[in-house]
Amino acid sequence: MSWRWFHQWGSPRWFYERAGRWQLVCGWLALILLVVGSLWGLGFAPVDYQQGNSYRIIYLHVPVAFLAQAMYAAMAVCAVVLFVWKMKLADVAMQAIAVTGLAFTVLSLVSGAVWGKPTWGTYWVWDARLTSMLILGFLYLGLIGLRAAIQDPDQAGKACGILVLVGVVNLPIIKYSVEWWNTLHQPASLKLTEKPTMPASMWMPLLVNILGYYIAAAYLVLGSMRAIVIGRERRASWVKELVGRA
Amino acid sequence: MIFEPVSLNISQVSCERDDRLLFHNLSFALRSGDILRVAGPNGAGKTTLLRMIAGLFEVQDGVITIDQEPLSERRHQVLYIGHKPQVSRDLTVIDNLKFLTGFDEPVVKQALIDVGLRGYHDSLVKELSQGQGRRCALARLWCSEAPIWILDEPYTALDVTMVETLDRKINAHVAQGGLCLFTTHQLPQSLNFETLELGRVD
Amino acid sequence: MSIEKRMLARELKLAAARPGDIFKPMWFLMLVISMVPLALSPDSVLLADIGSAMIWVATLLALLLNTEHLFQSDFSDGVLEQWLFLDRPLAWLVGLKLIVHWLFHVVPLICITPIAGLMLSVPTDVLIALLMTLVVATPALTCFSGLGAALTLGSSRSGILGVLVMMPLFVPVVILAAGVLIRATDGSEILPLMALLGAFSLVAATLVPIAVSAAIRLNIGGSN
What we know:
The complex is a heterotrimer of chains A (246), B (202) and C (224).
Chain A: H1 3-8, H2 12-44, H3 58-85, H4 88-120, H5 128-149, H6 153-184, H7 200-232, H8 237-245
Helix pairs in contact in A: 2-7, 3-4, 3-6, 3-7, 4-5, 4-6, 4-7, 5-6
Chain B: E1 7-17, E2 20-31, E3 35-39, H1 46-53, E4 61-66, E5 69-70, E6 78-81, H2 93-101, H3 105-114, H4 130-138, E7 148-152, H5 160-175, E8 179-183, E9 194-197
Parallel strand pairs in B: 3-8, 3-9, 6-7, 7-8
Antiparallel strand pairs in B: 1-2, 1-4, 4-5
Chain C: H1 3-17, H2 19-39, H3 44-67, H4 72-77, H5 80-83, H6 90-119, H7 124-151, H8 161-166, H9 171-186, H10 191-221
Helix pairs in contact in C: 1-6, 2-3, 2-6, 3-6, 3-7, 6-7, 6-10, 7-9, 7-10, 9-10
């Protein structure tokens, strides 16, 4: 890895231009994968013998829930990069991921509730996974709120970085404690029985969709990063030039 | 008390804040006996520069050293008085100063007499007038062992006699081998200082 | 006088100068507890069932309430920035402040929980367990809410943001304490869980002041 390569990432303009191209690639790739995976999963995968067709929401719910958690970890990586290499782009990424991460968390909670109605007979149960997802949502919300409250973007970024790092250390503890808490009380009477094996015809489309959603997330994050870069660099000459051309 | 010779080096320091370039490649050095007035219009970065030298604001670009050592190693050699009150409103004058200076009661009481706050040592800071509060903050100069003084607008809210007292104190400090940086909008009459003009970025 | 002694003397005098900060959260706690039977029912069996949990949550809220502005006046007076010139690591000084804060503003809260327990008909053995969990858990809670206070120092319109940001991190502490209370109600062994809670509190009390000092430094850097 050469230093030149590393330094290019510090240039907002370089990033803005490249990210536009990457975004295009990600967008098309995600679209293809999601169309294939969703059609396959919703239309052609076999019906579940216990849950009937309602299980098909996993083709949305599972990838989204994966992403909600993975994005917090990605933010922690960005926070480390921000503090160690003082790279402002890492902060931009953190800001973009926080919003996207919250969106995925909400989506996973909502899709979970929709799935819960036919399966558990209720939209919400205090199941361990649901509860820790809810807490994760509050963590994302806290980050967005903290950033909004601090005027100076550099300072807001560092404050969020501290919060992300404290949060990422706590997240596994929260997860395990919530799981333990769930066993401590009466286990939910209608618990989703996990089948040890899923036939390939069911998990193959899921795999395609997971990949698709990851790439779609990259598309969204790159898009909002570009918007944030433009906003922060609005007084730079290259941005004025760009706006003038448009 | 005579200080060991001390030097403060500012080299190639730049600062950008809120998308505005405040100063660029600023370099200067101060030695024992120097007094520097940092001047410039409002918003030129005077406070920012002083806070950078005091180590309160991160140096983004450039190096600041005290005797060739990084700032963070020599923090306790710096006395900084900013334009916040610098004293807690809910504490007495003497408790504030005992905490900030680490000196015992007799020394602090003498300092209070020197700044004209005789008899006020047991008053709460919130009971003082603005000028008296400022005198209380400045009393730290009379019980300080730090060779480097960084004073942001020290003359604000002071009367004529206190201004003269402060000038005498700064002169005595640099005569002992200390150095002093300050900002002000009124020109002190009895100080022999150099001026650094900010606000003209080329 | 050593820097530590100076810090402690100052914090004690500040606590003495602001007695309202000690009493208001206690007052708040008792008010919340008085609302419970009004909102639920005066039936002592029902109250005893949820009493200990209610007291825990109310104490947590009262603690958050009085830690929210922990550094605010020192910050706006410009005294906090003077701490950086003291010849000690900032995290250590922050730790000292948090300890004094815990002693003078949190321990009094814990001291009145037995009265709240009597009002909600909490059985004695559960009440003892409740007191123990509060003593062991509050250092961690104090540190975390101190971090919330430090992170939001620089923004004038933050409101209760510090509280909102930090509350999700309280989850493990609340769960462990609830576990202790459930076992105390059953009459089973509580020591292992107490040990776990203590370990969490100890780790938080050691590491969180470092994050708090980073947040303070950050906000000092951003102010004039």
